[in-house]
Specification:
The protein is mainly beta. Among the domains are: 27-82 and 403-502, no CATH class; 318-391, Thrombin, subunit H, CATH 2.40.10. The chain has 6 helices and 30 strands. The chain has helices at residues 2-15, 19-27, 118-127, 177-188, 273-276, 430-436; strands spanning 35-42, 50-58, 62-70, 75-83, 98-103, 134-140, 150-156, 159-161, 197-205, 211-222, 229-233, 237-242, 262-270, 286-288, 294-298, 304-310, 316-323, 326-333, 339-347, 355-359, 364-368, 372-378, 384-391, 406-410, 415-419, 456-462, 465-474, 481-482, 485-486, 494-502. The strands form 8 sheets. Strands 1-27-26-25-24 form a 5-stranded antiparallel beta sheet, with no helix packed on it. Strands 11, 12, 13, 14 and 15 form a 5-stranded antiparallel beta sheet that branches. A hairpin with a 3-residue loop joins strand 11 (229-233) and strand 12 (237-242). The two termini are 39 Å apart.
Amino acid sequence: MRKTLMIFLALVLVCGCGTALAAQAVSAPREEILFQEHIFSGDPAAADGLTVQLKTGMRYKLNWESTVQFSAQDYRAETSFRFLPAGQAEQPEMSYRGVEINFYHDAATTGSDDVFGFSTAYQSLLDTLSPGESGSMTIRFAEYYDEYPFEFSIDLPGVNYDPLVNWQDASADSEWLGERAQAALGRFFRIPVLQDEYVELGIDKNMDGTGSGRSISSVMEGDRFWMNVESVITDDTCFFWFGNRTDKDRLVDTSRIPGGYGVYMLPYGPLAPDAEASAFYGGNTNEVYTDQLTCFFPVDPETRIEHLGLTPDKTRLLLHTVENNTYYVTLIDCKTGDTLQKLAVSDFEPEDDYVNITEMEDFVCIQQTQGRICVLTQDADGLYQLVLRSDYLPNDLYAPVYATVRAMAFDGRRLVIVNNDETVLSNDGPSAAAYLAGSTEALITPDGTYVDNCGFVLTVFDETGLAYSGGYVSSLEGCNYVNGRAMRYEDLIQPDTITLSWQNGAA
């Protein structure tokens, strides 16, 4: 009786939160959540000892936490329900983007004599338009720039520099630390423009003759280069690298960068005493030391860098590379730059493959789309060893790569990947039948987004390959559909987090 009364009171409170939320609360079950097993391949006994904790919710007000335990014979599930009238979202762990590098393409169109680069092109286009008209034109990048005009953003603990300063105005003598950093990084990263790169510029001409609504986009003609950067951050240093290949897999010229191509190091730390009192720094407590910017770990430009990671203690870098069709992981000391280990992991065909790398506290998982999973762990000396290599059929529909919510666990011999997969799981009604018949229409909400399902896909790998793959459809799923059609995105019950553990304590 008490439980029924509490649920009734919760529903009364829900009614003040909107009709859709109230309808969901009335129709959704509380703690009688069932999970229907669908075996895709292998034996469910391969998940023996695994516990899956799945949190789902709606608008952070209706919250379910399900615990699914697997044994060699069966599985069992228990679910608890909480109603939070004010809503309570999981607070994400603080993260920082590190160094980001993009092309600077904004430009003044004043008609003054000091325009250059894209400014010149925008002005030429503007001069061809009548007030109130819009226009576009395709230009060859190299006709306006010798080197790529980069702008830099820096997001580190205590440091946040957005590219607020015009690229051409960056000054090493500026009172603003962000502008000084922009100037220093601009002098450091100098890359000649491809001779066959083209872009399309667009602009609107206002009634007073000025320009607005400037745009720039790539075109199919020629080749293109994008400055894709990846950073890892320690307590006092940002390490980063960028991809040095064009869309057509040609090398860009990195010879003008001091030290050449590789992993770069940008230290950061407390503000200087004179900077601390300046209003220009917008609450920053640290600054970057651009005078110490360097190519920390040179890499042959022909080597493909796939990923840069960090050991859990933040003392060593993990550099993932492909050299001569072999995948390597190199362990690098963060202070000295010395190579501590270079481990050959697997053969690799870069033209046919890419990788998805997951770094956990106790292991590193390297998943190749060609159908291979490799797991690395550290030994007592901190060196890495290949402890699992598991091959599976690349066309296996249920071998997961990416998902909305995803978790991994390794118990020393088995790797389990559990994820939400909207393309596999659906309710057992008309939408499931439509999907199995080859249609995804019912899995799309009225606002055009895919439905994230309330259940999960479980995949176990061992030394034999793909040992088990199965889907577990939650009975909550049916609450996301009305007459076989998905509800609006904001009215969906959606997965929040997945946590895994093995009976032996591995997680």
